[in-house]
Amino acid sequence: MKCVIIANGDIVDYEEIGKLINDCDFIVCADGGAKHLLHMDILPHTIVGDLDSIDESAKKFFKDRNVDFYRFPKKKDYTDTELAIKYALKKGVTEILFLGVIGSRMDHTIANITLLLPLLKKNIQAKIINDHNEIMIVDKEIAIAGEIGEVLSIIPLTQKVEGITLQGLEYPLYDATISMGQTIGISNKFIDKRAVVSIKKGKILLIKARD
């Protein structure tokens, strides 16, 4: 089951983001992310969080339409986005798409990206999408669709990432090693409509980006 979690970060292109949401089976809103769904006139299955950032108009709109609210106290050990993940996992989801998890608060943005790590360990497919990026964490082989000239970057998340092979990109690698802090994996480009990234040991942050 494919789940989408919408948080309170930045979303600009509601038309395209709405298409992504409508392609999912289960919709979970993390607190203030409700404002985005209100703009798109989309009903979530549930709204999770301490409800300290949701607009009153959005709260009323969704309560009037019998949307479930799963409320937590303000003093808690988890962010609203992590609580949304825990809720979704209890529902048996196998894939999670994150929207609205990147914004001006860099602490929240970085924390949200790291939430992909425990999902990887649970074999849950997880991806962050905003108006300019698709973000994943990879520890084995993955094929990525893209347009020719589109940017693909890899960033080590472990001290060393070994056995890196890149195919379908302008700058291929074959069984290479990249250490944390090296930037050799930044701003590669698709030369085909399909790239393959594989690694033997370690974890990488994979970002397909556009300006």
From TrEMBL:
InterPro entries: Thi_PPkinase, Thiamin_PyroPKinase_B1-bd, TPK, TPK_B1-bd_sf, TPK_catalytic, TPK_catalytic_sf
Domain Thiamin pyrophosphokinase thiamin-binding: 146-205
GO molecular function: ATP binding; kinase activity; thiamine binding; thiamine diphosphokinase activity
BP GO annotations: thiamine diphosphate biosynthetic process; thiamine metabolic process
CDD domains xrefs: TPK
EC number: 2.7.6.2
One of the Pfam families matching this protein, by short name: TPK_catalytic
Sorted UniProt keywords: ATP-binding, Kinase, Nucleotide-binding, Transferase
Protein's name according to its UniProt entry: Thiamine diphosphokinase
Species this protein is from: Marinisporobacter balticus
